[in-house]
Amino acid sequence: MARVIASVLMAALALGAIALTGGGELSRVQTVFGMNTASGASTAVGANATPMVTATTGGPMVVLGLGDSVMAGTGCGCDGIPEEYSAILRQRTGRQLTAVNEGVPGATSADLLADLKDPGLRSEVADADVIIVSIGANDMVDGLDGCTPSGCAAQSASQAAAMKSRVDAVLTQLRALRGGRPFECLILGYWNVYPEGDPTVPEDEHGRPIALAATTAANGVLEQSASGHGATYVDLMPSFRGADGMSNPSRLLAEDGDHPNATGVEVIAHELAQAFAGA
Fold it and tell me: By the 8 A CB rule, do 27 and 56 touch?
């Protein structure tokens, strides 16, 4: 499996940081996965949420991105979500960040679960201080073409329920691979999991209800899975679709009308930084 690794080095001017050494000990997020809040529940964040700052040590950090084409950066013409997020953390904290992007275009939750058997990926998970997961959109598209809005709603609910068991298994695997060491896990929601066609026509009478049903179902189970495993769910709907979920997201999308463009990736990175500031 191809590995795309980008190292983001700290500008140690006024911050007096220490350069990365080959055998240096990575800092570990002090909030244990499974206990991100005082109650042990997940925290959902979005465009209007209050930033959550989790205490960490001040050394280097590794940010790992897992998931589908959104994580891989398809169509954005940019470095990608882990890289952009790491750059924000570096700027805000002065810490040394290494970004590792393992997004795979077309990946489903079943694919990600299978990939976690790969020794190389397992090693990367074991070394990561922050893990970002974008998965589930490709689980939802099968069987939706040609269905009626009411039929699609039932189909979406069924597919989302099946997806949840796999996402739960993924999160369980991540926790096990960390071997009890603390880390931060951020689960991305979606603005749309079903191609509506032209993104400049959000009022499309057929595509819009189907997309809304599928996206709502997918985001619902992703948030539930995050809650059940102490991860942080990052709601992207307000940033892409507005508070009412009806705004046109095309300014944040690539030419394919599906994946985020460079501006969209930047928005996602800032939402991640609001969820976990890395301080």
Answer: yes
